[in-house]
Amino acid sequence: MLSIKRSNSENIHFEILVSQLNSYLKTVDGEDHEFYMQYNGIESLNNVVIAYENQLPVGCGAFKKFNSKSVELKRMFTSPEYRNKRIASKILKELETWAEELGYTSCILETGKRQIEAVEFYQKNSYSKIENFGQYRDVDNSICFEKQLKHEKG
Questions:
Q1: What is the pLDDT of residues 49-84, one digit of tens each?
Q2: 15, 54 in Cβ contact below 8 A?
Q3: Predicted model pTM
Q4: Quick one: which of 8, 59, 86, 89 could link to 51 by a disulfide (CB 3.0–4.6 Å)?
């Protein structure tokens, strides 16, 4: 049975899943891996979601404040043997709900063009391609997305 739990970056299950993610990305990103890693520290992530299948940690995701209206999604990962079971979509939905509860109106993210499954996943979940932001602005391998969570009141 799948359960989704909110936590923070001090959760040992999150640390284990992120370690698996980093190993995967090292092979996908190749020589670009070190560049991306400098922006993927987890020590200050206070909004972490972990998916458990029969109490076994199988997926995770997180967000951090980007500006007063947006959060940046980080460290999305599902263990390979648990993919194609909609676990990542449930993690993503929980992150979006949590961000809305905190008053944010959009989620943004960066992923690599070589991560074809990730690009397709975000598009399937109503994320739209946007201009690369911040440190990814001039990075050819990066692709950035955004999703509006709700309309501002006023």
A1: 999 999 999 999 999 999 999 999 999 999 999 999
A2: no
A3: 0.89
A4: 59
Domains of the chain and any CATH numbers: 2-148 (3.40.630.30)
Confidence at residue 63, expressed as pLDDT on a 0 to 100 scale: 97
Dist. CA 151–CA 69, nearest whole Å: 11
Q: Cβ distance 61 to 73 under 8 Å? A: yes
Neighbours of 109 (CB within 10 A): 23
Look up tokens 């944010």; give the residue.
104
Nearest one of 114, 104, 47 to 74, comparing CA atoms: 47
Cα–Cα distance for residue pair 49/17, rounded to 1 Å: 11
CA dist 40 and 75 (Å) reads 8
Q: Does the structure show a pLDDT above 90 at 8?
A: yes
Beta strands 106-112 and 70-78, pairing class: parallel
Other CB atoms within 10 Å distance of the CB of residue 107:
24
